[in-house]
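[09:14] KT: can someone run the structure on this one? pasting the chain below
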Amino acid sequence: MLDFKISKLSDCFGIEISDIDLTNEFNNEDINILKRLFFDNHVIVFRDQKISEQQQLAFTKHFGELEVYPEADKTRDSQKTYHVANVNLDGKHLTDKDEQVIFQKVNQNWHTDSSYRFIPSYASLLYAIEVLPDDAGGGETEFVNMFEVYDSLDNELKIKLEPLHMVHYYEFGRRMFPNLPPVSDFEKENIPPVSHPLIRLHPDRHNSRSLFFTANAGNEIGGMSQEKGSILHKKLVAIVSNSNFKYKHRWKKGDLLMWDNRCLLHRAVSYDMNKYRRVLRRTTLAGTSAIKGPFLDPSII
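[09:31] RB: done, structure tokens below
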């Protein structure tokens, strides 16, 4: 039976679990306890871990199938791990002109991991290998609870969003940073544009609703002109940015942070990438089904 300490991260969501070693063996009862805590709290930070890549993969597998990354990335050597880093595999500190570091800037916009896939991811697990010193500004990861954001919308906007979808595509980062290299033919074939409903239903939560969109993988709303869709998208980004339903995580070395991509958005907080090294290793749990949107009532069209 697991024996650990739990404390709250914020009033909105999230818990910290301490006095647990993730390299230990876990039985089904242990994992079911952790799954329940994760379901209820959306974010768990496991403090003071010393975990190798293979151990992180093994722990992640307790919660489901891992996602594979077909995307090109020169800071990793496995298709099941993803290094969120401004340091390459040889330990060289990359400048903010390097394409891999520019991708980190793309993710300073609100997003959920793998939204550009037909079946987006379920959860992400990010392990802190190198972090910014305490007196450095930025470098945190900020989260927002999209159940709460949806509930806070006025009824007129909820009705407007009911039938709408957003187009998500991996190539969108090139619009923000045109100096990035073009998407490869392999990437175009394996991760083409997809469309997801702006309102997401959660069958495992009695079809409760959350707002689902990103700012790093598109700004086009299906069924609207590009201009009107972009205006609506900017409005949604502003609502999320100005909401009170957030948690900002200040990284400590040895943190393993696990979050639910189905109901949260997150973003990296900018920092001086040329001055500080930052190395985090991510494993990602694959989603199990396409996103379910609300039943379309013809009377609201």
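[09:33] KT: thanks! The radius of gyration is 19 Å.
[09:34] RB: yep, looked fine to me
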